[in-house]
Amino acid sequence: MSTEILTLLFFGSLLLFVFLGLPLAFVLGGVSVVFLYFTWGFDSFYMVASQIWSTMGSFTLVAIPLFVYMAMILERTGVAKDLYRAMHLWFGGLRGGLAIGTLAICAIFAAMVGISGAAVVAMGTIALPAMLARGYDRSMCLGVINTGGGWGILIPPSIMMILYALISGVSVGKMFAAGILPGILLMVLTAAYILIRSNLQPHLAPALPPEERGTLREKLISLRSVALPILIVVMVLGSIMGGITTPTEAAAMGVLGSLIAAAVYRKLDYALLKEASIRTFKLSGMIMWILFAAHAFSAAYQSMGAQSMIEGFITQIPGGPWGIIIAMMLITFILGMVLDPVGIMLITLPVFLPIVESLGFDPIWFGILFVINMEIGYMTPPFGFNLFYLKGIVPPEITMKDIYKSVIPFVIVEIIGLVLLMIFPEIVTYLPELLF
Amino acid sequence: MRAISAFMKGVTRMNKAIGVAVSFLVFAMFLFILLEVFLRYAFNAPTVWTNELTQLLFGAYAVLSGGYLLAHRGHVNVDLIYSLFGPRMQAAIDVFTSILFFIFTLALLYFGVDMAQESISNWETSYSAWNPPIWPVKACIPIGTALLVLQGIVKLLEDIAIACNLSYYRPEDHPEHDPKGEQL
Amino acid sequence: QETFTWKVQSHWPGASSSYKDSLGRLKEQLEERSDGRLKLQLFEAGSLFKAQETFNAVSRGILEMGTISPSYASDKMTLAGIASGLPFAFRNVWEAAYFHQALGFEEMLREEAAQHGVYWATDKVYPTEMVVKEPIESLEDFKSLKIRSSGALQKFLTEAGAAASYIPGGELYTALDSGIVDGAHWGAAQGAYSMALYEIAKYHVQPALNIAGTDVIIVSQKAMDKLPADLQQLVKDVLQEQFWYRTNEYLYKERITLAKAIAEEGVEVNTLPQDVQDHLVQVGQAMWDEEGKRSDKAAEALSMLKSFLSDLGYL
Ligand code: NA
Ligand code: NA
Questions:
Q1: Highest averaged pLDDT of the listed ranges C39-53, C240-254, C281-295
Q2: N or C: which end of chain B has fewer CB within 10 A?
Q3: Pairs of CB atoms within 8 A across B/C
Q4: pLDDT tens digits, C93-116
Q5: Under a CB-based contact definition with an 8 Å cutoff, are residues A385 and A290 in contact?
């Protein structure tokens, strides 16, 4: 059977079982096993077990339970609630103020982690209830967390950029530098969207009525609650930049910070630790079982000959160099719906990179486009890991449909950003050229 | 019938108890990483064992979560179309899709046992600078998968009961298993 | 005529020079000289199996071919520790090559691998060298170092008094940049260059920490047996040529890369002071005997190595 037909069957059966409500992890794992049997025989199932063992041995993933643990402790201590109250007092007058504040926290979080899942789960726990409680539109809140939670791979440090550098041979330092301005651009675009939308439709992100905005004294007192979150950010970011910890180890500093916060709030006891541990276990386990199956899935797809299919496909694209670049973006976008980013990189980059370079494009610029595209892939329906992580944390009355619908405008905003970077490549190349 | 109910309750209770116990490993991982950072930064004396031990604990932690999550309906799914159906139809669909669940988990169990056996047969160690035994963590793959398979059988029995209106399992006795998922 | 396609799992990422130079060459040679009867389908590091799992997959016949470092097969191969390099044993690459091919170490590795259904062929022998941010000018300098390391060398560097810790490849650049570690080894010049380590660490330390057959091509015996006799011979011949060709080419590229790093990135070669070298040799030798204890074969290989080194006048 040709790889094209296999691809259709592979992805088709995936969609069927997902929409029949089987949990994502089992769909990915089951479909891999079935297709491995038909393409490679019984023994190939060993690959599934072996991929799980390898995923268990990936040190950077240890950051997931730790950052989730940090968020669970913070949420229970009340510091998160106080932080949002302070933010509301200060920016409550601004329509969409809390959503933009959430974006800012997401950006800070993104500078602390190199991966995506932990931030979505953490922000879903902390920010979502706070915004919903203040009358923010459900769709707006979900979209903000989905988009901002994914910035972890876009803003350095970023495991994705390091991987891209390893596969492509470009400098890691230049990749990091190149990611900064595009990250800011996307933040500005997303914030602008929120501002415009909430001024056109004030009920989506209501301002605090003037009589509730508090006196200056109240505002100043509320700032006390900002101190602890800032302490945590300083502990995590400071230990990364100060050469004290790697980004993965920095997650432990985050936990330490949240324990200090709990102690300050006089909530640090066995019950808190136990409850946070159990909630962390549920969420990290959910993420990890999806990753187990996703890694098996991309290995299975690789073994079916995905790479040579994409190779054949890309050579038939009309429209000259830009046609090819756009086709590559579309392919990554589509694969981003179903595969994990590491798998996508391993399948596509060996095909794409020689072509990109032979066409005379800058591989660093292409890398940033690629990483942004992965970030979009994390949140595009029907398959976006961020969507699933968020679904795992929201209260039951929020359905997958709500989450799916919520990301559409935010995906469009990111695509606009992507197009801007294609038209003005200087936004990407300016900093690396200046710094190196 | 009573045996079926007892089996279902027993498995679920076991998975929940194991999950609670394993969940505390996150605190151990936190402590070990913190210790390593402290020793390296303050005393210029990094250890050879902290990161690797954390890694091994993490592996066990992750793979042992499967059954506990299923017992709590914690594996995330898409309810877009699914939620349009009534409970009996949903249960019938679940019976059908469980084929894929069992294909995945049984393949994993088979090769997980195989891998663990091989590892245990030579008391496999990691051959790193610290060189700890890694067979216990490899053994967690078939153990974690077996727990998941058992809970999957429980889930299948529930679904069959709901779909066919059988008496050994009544969903109204188990409000925590509302298909809409459990509030964390 | 029957054609065969082999799946080959690499332990090198695609951008690594060895991916193209070793595997690319092997593919080209085999396909051309078999008139297309034997084809290789290459997979970059981690695509199908992670590096540590490749030996098992080849041993079970799930993969026909793969590349590994001997240390990834430590649990099966008692000779792995000696193959992946005893610290400060050889002083020149040719010595390691002679030890493998003329004195029979390669044959010993092949025999042990055959017990697991694997045909073992060392791809090349080459040095492992450190890069550091500040030059090492005294034993004190060395002992104050924090070094990113892995495997047996991590133990060696620790015993020699430095602070060696393991950091995964993906975080190495950041760790070195922010000062979590002051130095690292990732292959030698080419490895450091590919990881962009010279951007942040300007001193290339010599002599090598070890010189060894750190890259190995493994073939599944099951797959080999399926080939007609002439193709089996072809595979073995090409692999044998590969060793000499690649060992030589790799040395050449090391020098070219180091020259480029010196010219473009302002890198300097930091030759370890004699007292540091003496200290490292002493610590290294104490560790060798540990490896000899793993099996009779390992003891035999170690005594062979020691007598070779005394013949050379090093012991
Ligand atoms: Na980041
Ligand atoms: Na997606």
A1: C240-254
A2: N
A3: 46
A4: 999 999 999 999 999 999 999 999
A5: yes
Counting runs of H as helices and runs of E as strands, what totals does chain A give? 21, 0
Residue of C nearest to B128 (CA): C151
pLDDT at A176: 85
Alpha helices in A304-384 (DSSP H): 306-314, 320-338, 341-358, 363-379
What is d(CA C296, CA C315) in angstroms, rounded to the nearest whole number? 22
Predicted confidence band of residue C221 (pLDDT cuts 50, 70, 90): very high
In degrees and rounded to multiples of 5, residue C164 shows phi and psi of: -100, 130
- Provide the residue ranges of all domains of chain A, joining segments of one domain with +: 62-268+305-435
Contacts of B69 in chain A (CB under 8 A): 282, 285-286, 289
pLDDT value at residue A156 = 78
ipTM score for this prediction? 0.91
CB atoms within 10 A of CB C263: 9
Identify the three-state secondary structure at position C211: strand
Q: Do A249 and B33 touch (CB under 8 A)?
A: yes
Taking the CA of residue B151 and the nearest CA in chain C, the distance in Å comes to: 29
| Helix A426-435 × helix A363-379 angle, to 10° | 120
Strand arrangement of the beta sheet that strand C4-9 belongs to: C38-43, C4-9, C65-68, C210-220, C118-128
Q: What is the mean pLDDT of residues C19-38?
A: 96
Phi, psi values for residue A249, rounded to 5°: -65, -30
Neighbour-count burial of B81, counting CB atoms closer than 10 A to its CB (0-12 exposed, 13-18 middle, 19+ buried): middle
Phi, psi of C210 (to 5 degrees): -155, 165
Look up the pTM and report it.
0.91
Whether A62 and B78 lie within 8 Å, measured CB to CB:
no
> Most confidently modeled of A242-256, A349-363, C87-101?
C87-101
- The strand pairing partners of C65, in sequence order, are C8, C219
Question: Greatest CA span in chain B, whole angstroms?
Answer: 66
Task: Characterize B61-75 residue by residue with b for buried, 16 or more Cβ atoms within 10 angstroms of its Cβ, and e for exposed.
Answer: bbbbbbbbbbbbbbb
Q: How far apart are CA A226 and CA A420, in angstroms?
A: 35
The residue among C54, C83, C59 whose CA lies nearest residue C71 is: C83
pLDDT digits (tens, 9 = 90+) for B7-53: 999 999 999 999 999 999 999 999 999 999 999 888 888 888 998 99
Q: Give the three-state DSSP class for A207.
A: coil
Q: Per the CB < 8 Å rule, is C180 touching A159?
A: no
| Domain residue ranges of chain B, discontinuous segments joined by + | 1-164
